[in-house]
Amino acid sequence: MKIVARDIPPRSAWALEQAGVHPLLARLYAARGVQGKDELDDGLVRLLAPATLRGAREAAVLLADAIRDDKRLCIVADYDCDGATACAVAVRGLRLLGAKQVSYLVPDRVIDGYGLTPPIAERVAASGADVLITVDNGIASVEGVAAAKARGLAVLVTDHHLPGPALPAADVLVNPNQPGCEFESKSIAGVGVMFYVLLALRSELRARGVFDVATQPKLDALLPLVALGTVADVVRLDANNRRLVAQGLRRIRAGSMPAGIAALFKAAGRNAQAATTFDFGFALGPRINAAGRLADMTLGIECLLTEDAARADELARMLDGINRERRDIEGGMREQALMLAETLFDDSQALPAAISVFGADFHEGVVGIVASRLKDRFHRPAFVFAASAADGKSHELKGSGRSIPGFHLRDALDLVAKRHPGVLLRFGGHAMAAGCTVAEEHFETFERALAQVAMEWLDAAALTRRLDTDGPLAPEYLRVDLVDTLHREVWGQGFAPPTFSEEVEVISQRLVGEKHLALKLKHQGKPVDGIWFGHTEPLPPRVVIAFRLDADEWQGVRRVRFLVEGAEG
User: Are 155 and 171 in contact (CB under 8 A)?
Assistant: First the structure.
């Protein structure tokens, strides 16, 4: 591992300090590209205008007409947290804005696969719906949209994924990544796209005289859901996404949130009054995602829709139980996947540039998480495959991949498909995460082809694990109040949480729980506790470490501790 301190533009840091930003925060923000305090303004008025999102105006007209005519609207959602929150935002928002007949449908991961397929379109039509609205999917659903149109449905696609070579022939497409869209936030999550459609719809209804500024529904009540889905989907937190997340966190901390979000905080043992992006990404998001991985995402969506606190608590406890089951399954799969990956090389061989593994007993709902673990362990693009559990499709392998910086996973799959026609039955995704389906007989061809592309695209520097940090931490900042200040800020993908690095003295170390290293350190002459989760190898007496700040409590006293992220060497 190579630990590298970020550059801190001195002029930006100085300008932020002069504007009243805390010196430590000024340094952190400057290192992340923030040049002035106005960029830190997270007010709603600073959000990008819906008018710049291509298709939003047309979507607003379509939906306003449907509400006027009392049409039946059906939301088709994805089965991850972004899809679940987008569905909840759509249902809640459309009802707020006057729609009386709103239902939803979530494809089953195993039976239906991803997105709006022709069978899903048939089910929506059979339900009696007039308008089909996709959230967090649909941009690649050319056949599904055609099937829906053939059944007489009006189709609105809202999505944020990268489009394929052909766009679906929907009545309206809203996607910042479609050709010709000038919306600056290309990283907005699916839930954010739907929120923007609702903003445009409200504006259209105002123009029609249905509401005025004083009587219009307040859509900001949806922002806790937008914030949760945005962080859980690990999209890049550009300025607009950070504002959406900050607004959602502010409302949650003030106690203003859907009953389901409050219940999920309770089930996860987290304090909503001190909510952080970490809670979204590592506590609430996984519990909602678990429903789509192992059970039925309807549970997650119902939890986010219900206004009954007792019902929300019941659903949150169910989601918590499913998530515990998911962790058990993941643990066994992770160990097996690591062993399979280690068979790909030995001491005399270099690690392949990309890793693909398949286990006959793997659960297809957990392959993405295990791929992420492999990627973290080996610092290689990684795909994990499981046999499809759908009837008659056991010969198909469903894979999920995670990537490293410098390797665009969806583009790599596209190149594999061009070089080896017929190997990939389906594929799609983003730069850092993607999915695909291959016939079992073609798995080894895929494995070699992906590794070949990775070997061509990635050089030695890219294949060396690099941990960017914020450099040394001045001892005067080892304060619990500053830890709390840092935790309240919006950090995440593309706006990394503060991680510091410097040489420390290791006073003592011991294993706890057989898999974590508890440390007594001396940092610039001052004692401090540390812990390295998931690490068992002992450290030398003096070592350069990368660490995040945390606070733990012992006998009623809160103290700063280091969460070790890595060590150089």
Answer: yes
The encoded tokens of residue 398 equal 């469903």
The CA-based dihedral angle spanning residues 356, 360, 361, 364, taken in that order and rounded to the nearest 10 degrees? 60
Selection from 459, 454, 445, 345 nearest residue 397 by Cα: 445
**Residue 102's beta-bridge partner residues?**
73
Provide the pLDDT for residue 431: 87
List pLDDT tens digits, range 215-226.
999 999 999 999
Amino acid making up residue 130:
D
Of residues 118, 70, 123, the one with CA closest to residue 94: 70
> Cα(387)–Cα(399) distance, rounded to whole angstroms?
9
Long-range contacts of 566-569 (CB under 8 A, 24+ apart): 566/1, 566/3, 566/465, 566/467, 567/1, 567/539, 567/543, 568/1, 568/2, 568/3, 568/543, 568/544, 569/1, 569/543, 569/544
65-100 b/e with 16+ CB inside 10 Å = b? ebbeeebbbbbbbbbbbbbbbbbbbbbbbbebbbbe
Q: Which amino acid is at 192?
A: G
- The span from the CA of 161 to the CA of 82, in Å, is 12
Tokens of 95: 């009802």
